[in-house]
Design brief:
Blueprint: H1 3-21, H2 23-30, H3 56-59, H4 63-73, E1 76-77, H5 83-88, H6 94-107, H7 124-130, E2 134-135, H8 146-151, E3 154-166, E4 179-188, E5 192-200, E6 217-226, E7 229-239, E8 269-271, E9 281-290, E10 293-304, H9 322-327, E11 331-344, E12 347-362, E13 376-390, E14 393-402, E15 407-418, E16 421-430, E17 451-462, E18 466-477, E19 488-502, E20 505-515, E21 527-539, E22 543-552, E23 555-566, E24 569-580, E25 586-588, E26 600-602, E27 605-617, E28 621-630, E29 633-643
Parallel strand pairs: 1-2
Antiparallel strand pairs: 3-4, 3-29, 4-5, 5-6, 6-7, 7-8, 7-9, 9-10, 10-11, 11-12, 12-13, 13-14, 14-15, 15-16, 16-17, 17-18, 18-19, 19-20, 20-21, 21-22, 22-23, 23-24, 24-27, 25-26, 27-28, 28-29
Helix pairs in contact: 1-2
Length: 644
C-alpha cells in the first residue's frame, strides 16, 4: 500500500478517536499541559564521546541545551512552526522535517500530538523524545508588543563551582584551583534573549595578577526578533553557513551511531551565552526576511590567543601560567560576512561570503606537510549551498572556494528506501590548499581541506523496538599530514543494534572498526572497539540502572550508574573501572550537570567514583552537588539555578 495512503487512513482514524473521546486531552495540549504519562525529563543525550579531544572547547557551547530547556516550559507549536523552527529543536533529521511539512500540507494542522504516530518516519521512541518540547497549538502566531518582550520571558541565573579536594601533586599554576562560572540569561523564545556570562578556569587568578578585572572571561549578548527582522544580534553570537565548509560555530556531530544525523542544520545567526572562549564572534549581525528571501550581514572584532609570532591560534582559553597569559589577546581578528538565502517550495538556495583580517600574519613554515597551511593576514571564502526535497529524497550540498582559488565540495543525499529503512550518502572533496578557519564539515579531519571521501549510512527499524544502524566511510588525504610523510588513505565502519522493549529499557550493541595510515612510516594497527550498553528500570520510574562495557585492542572500560528519584530529590551514583595503553585514553559523556557537555577522560589504569544529588526547592530553585573520587584525587562540584 502506498505510504501516504497508509498515513491518511491512520490519521482519519486518529482524528475520529480524538473527536469522539479525546476532547479533554486536546484542551490540555493547547494549554501547554501534557498527559502525565508523556512527560519526559532533560537532558537529551547524545554521543559526545565521538568528538576528538581537540574539539573539547567546542563542547562548551550548550546553546542547544538551553534552547530545549526553554522549550520544555514554552513548547513549540507544531502547527505554526516553519522549517527553521523545527531544525532549531536539534532533534529532527532533514528527512523527518521534510516528511512532517508534507504531512501537514496534505492533511492540515494537527488535532492532537497522538497524530504524530501517523507521520512517516516518526516512531514511538522518537515521538517520546520530542513530546517535552512541542504542542499541537492553534497555528496562529500571537502579536507581541515590545513591552511583552520584557515581561513575558524567563529569567535564569546559573552558578557553577568546582574545586579539587585533594590532588596528586601541588598546584603548578598562578591562580587558585577553583573553577567558577556565573550566568544570567533572559529568554522570551524565540523573540528575545539577553544576558551575561562570566567564567574562571582552575589555575587562573581572580581579582589579582593577570586577572585584576575578576573573571578571566566575560561575555554578553542581546538578540531580538521582530517583524521582518528575523534576527538582530549584538555582542556575542554564532554564525552557521551551509554544510560547514566555510563556517560552523554550533555544536555538530560527525560519524556516530546516529547515522542519519549527518546534515548540518541551523539558523545563520544565534545568540551565544556559553562559557567557551573561541567559537563565537563579537560585534553585530542582522537577518532581514521579506517573503521567501533572507539577507544576513555581520561584523566582528575579537582578540584571540596566538601561540607565537607565526600566528598559530590556541583555542582552549586557559590563562593559568605566565606563558599562557603572554598569548592572551595577542592576535586581533576582524571579520565580515554576508548570506543571501532564497526559500523554495521544498528547500532553499544560499550564497555565502566570509572575510577575515588578522593583526599578525600567519606563517605556514618550512615543513613539507605545512606547504598548504594558512599564510598571510587576509583570508576570504565564498560559496553556495542548497537543500531540495522531492518525494522520499532529500538532496543537499555546498561548494566553496578560498582566496587562492582552492575549492571544497560536499554533496549529500538522504533517502527513505522503504517503510522504516533510511539511507544517507555523502561525497566530499577538499583540495589540499583549501582553508577556512571555522569550518566544521562532515569528515575525518577536524578542519576542512586535504581530504576526499564517501560516506554511506543505513538505518532500519522494526516496529518501535528494534533499530539497526550502520555506516562506512572511505577517505583519502592527497597531501602529507602531521607525522604522515606521504599521501594516505583509510576507512572506518560502525554497526549498531538497539532493542527497546519499553520506554525505560534499552539494550545497545555496537562494533567500530577503523584503519588509518602509517605514522612516521610505521604501520598503525587497526582500531577495533566493541561496546554494550544497557539501561533498565529496577523499581518502575524511581530507580534506574545503566551499564556500559567497552573493550578494544588498547583500552577497556566498565561503567555502572544508578539513578533514583524520590519526591523532589534525584540521586545518581556511578563507578568506572578502566585500563588503557600508554598515551591512549577513553572518554565518557553525560557525567556532569545538565548542560555540561564536558567529557570524562580516563587514561592509564584505575577506577573512578561519582556521586550526584539534585534537589528542587519550590518552583524556581534547583541545586546540584557532585563528588568525584579517584585514586589520589577527588573533586567537588556545586551548581545552583534560579528561574523566575
Amino acid at each position: 500500500m502506498n505510504w501516504w495512503c497508509m498515513a491518511v487512513v491512520i490519521t482519519v482514524l486518529l482524528r475520529a478517536e480524538v473527536k469522539a473521546g479525546g476532547q479533554e486531552t486536546q484542551k490540555k495540549e493547547h494549554g501547554r499541559e501534557m498527559p502525565q504519562e508523556e512527560v519526559h525529563e532533560l537532558p537529551y543525550e547524545t554521543e559526545l564521546e565521538q568528538l576528538p579531544e581537540e574539539e573539547q572547547p567546542r563542547l562548551e557551547n550548550d546553546e542547544a541545551f538551553q534552547q530545549r530547556e526553554t522549550l520544555a516550559g514554552r513548547r513549540l507549536d507544531l502547527n505554526a512552526a516553519d522549517e527553521a523552527a523545527l531544525y532549531a529543536l536539534g532533534l529532527l533529521s532533514a528527512l523527518q522535517v521534510q516528511q512532517f511539512i508534507a504531512y501537514r500540507q496534505l492533511l492540515g494542522p494537527l488535532i492532537s500530538l497522538y497524530e504524530l504516530q501517523a507521520v512517516p518516519g516518526f516512531d514511538l521512541p522518537f515521538i517520546r523524545s520530542l513530546l517535552p518540547y512541542v504542542r499541537a497549538g492553534t497555528g496562529l502566531e500571537p502579536a507581541y508588543t515590545l513591552k511583552d518582550y520584557w515581561r513575558k520571558g524567563r529569567h535564569t541565573v546559573l552558578m557553577r563551582y568546582q574545586r579539587p579536594l585533594r590532588a596528586v601533586e601541588a598546584n603548578k599554576y598562578n591562580g587558585s584551583i577553583d573553577k567558577v562560572m556565573l550566568r544570567y540569561r533572559y529568554q522570551f523564545s524565540p523573540y528575545a534573549s539577553w544576558g551575561v556570562v562570566m567564567e574562571k578556569d582552575a589555575g587562573e587568578q581572580f581579582f589579582r595578577g593577570a586577572q585584576k578585572q575578576g573573571f578571566d572571561h566575560y561575555g554578553a549578548h542581546l538578540f531580538v526578533r521582530k517583524g521582518n527582522i528575523k534576527a538582530l544580534a549584538l555582542g556575542d553570537y554564532t554564525v552557521n553557513m551551509g554544510q560547514g565548509l566555510i563556517q560552523w560555530h554550533g555544536l555538530s556531530f560527525g560519524k556516530s551511531g546516529q547515522v542519519m544525523q549527518v546534515k548540518r542544520e541551523g539558523e545563520v545567526l544565534r545568540p551565544y551565552a556559553s562559557a567557551g572562549e573561541f567559537y563565537f564572534y563579537r560585534g553585530a549581525g542582522i537577518t532581514i526576511k521579506r517573503r521567501r528571501s533572507e539577507w544576513t550581514a555581520f561584523l566582528s572584532r575579537r582578540a584571540l590567543d596566538a601561540a607565537d609570532s607565526s600566528g598559530s591560534l590556541t583555542t582552549g582559553g586557559y590563562h593559568r601560567t605566565a606563558a599562557e597569559v603572554g598569548k592572551r589577546g595577542s592576535m586581533l581578528q576582524y571579520t565580515a560576512g554576508a548570506v543571501y538565502k532564497k526559500w523554495l517550495p521544498h528547500g532553499h538556495m544560499a550564497v555565502n561570503v566570509l572575510a577575515h583580517r588578522f593583526s599578525k600574519p600567519f606563517v605556514k613554515g618550512t615543513a613539507p606537510y605545512r606547504l598548504y597551511g594558512p599564510d598571510g593576514r587576509t583570508f576570504l571564502n565564498a560559496g553556495v549551498d542548497y537543500a531540495l526535497g522531492w518525494r522520499n529524497l532529500h538532496f543537499f550540498g555546498e561548494a566553496a572556494v578560498d582566496r587562492n582559488r582552492e575549492y571544497a565540495v560536499l554533496q549529500g543525499l538522504l533517502a527513505t528506501l522503504s517503510r522504516g529503512v533510511d539511507a544517507a550518502f555523502i561525497y566530499r572533496r577538499e583540495m589540499p590548499g583549501y582553508h577556512a578557519f571555522y569550518a566544521d564539515a562532515l569528515g575525518e579531519n577536524a578542519s576542512a581541506g586535504n581530504e576526499s571521501g564517501f560516506y554511506t549510512g543505513l538505518q532500519a527499524r522494526w516496529g518501535s523496538r528494534w533499530l539497526v544502524a550502520a555506516y562506512a566511510d572511505v577517505f583519502r588525504f592527497p597531501w602529507l599530514r602531521y607525522r604522515v610523510n606521504a599521501p594516505s588513505e583509510g576507512y572506518d565502519a560502525l554497526v549498531m543494534c538497539t532493542w527497546q522493549p519499553d520506554k525505560l529499557t534499552t539494550l545497545t550493541l555496537r562494533y567500530y572498526y577503523k584503519r588509518k595510515a602509517a605514522i612516521d612510516s610505521l604501520p598503525v594497527p587497526a582500531e577495533q572497539t566493541v561496546r554494550c550498553q544497557i539501561s533498565l528500570p529496577v523499581m518502575a520510574k524511581s530507580l534506574q540502572w545503566k551499564c556500559r562495557l567497552q573493550a578494544g585492542a588498547t583500552a577497556w572500560l566498565v561503567h555502572q550508574q544508578w539513578e533514583a528519584r524520590w519526591q523532589r530529590w534525584r540521586f545518581s551514583a556511578g563507578y568506572t573501572w578502566y585500563e588503557t595503553a600508554e598515551k591512549k585514553a577513553v572518554f565518557l559523556a553525560g557525567q556532569g550537570f545538565p548542560g555540561d557537555n564536558s567529557l570524562a577522560r580516563y587514561s592509564g589504569s584505575g577506577w573512578g567514583l561519582q556521586l550526584q544529588a539534585q534537589r528542587r526547592i519550590g518552583r524556581s530553585v534547583t541545586c546540584w552537588c557532585r563528588w568525584q573520587l579517584a585514586p589520589g584525587a577527588s573533586s567537588l562540584q556545586v551548581q545552583w539555578r534560579f528561574d523566575w
